[in-house]
Input
Amino acid sequence: MISKEFQKELKDLIASDDIYKINDKISKIEVSDKKLFIEIIKFIINTLTDNLKVEDNELIDIWRNLKKHYWLLMEKLGRDPGISVAVFDYFININKKMNSPILVSNEFLESLRNSAYHDELTLTYNKNML
Output
């Protein structure tokens, strides 16, 4: 199980959009604890795709393919595409698990989730929360 502290650390790394930092953080875990590594990859993919359905047995291959795709994009574009763009492109054009995605900022998505459970005027829980 990934601790809340480690989840926050991963979210900060994901927000930095730097695959090098993410890879440095998790590469030792890949060797030492496969089960935890799979949970981490699932967390990263779910964070970047808002819970795209991916089978656990696919996660390690998907992560390796995502990294390869990232390097390929960087080479073709001549610049760092960032992990977010690489994941988006990979799941649309290579893996094809996404069809008709909508690009939304994390801030907007979070506010939308909050408004589903809180009344904006009174800031109390609404009927959806009951």
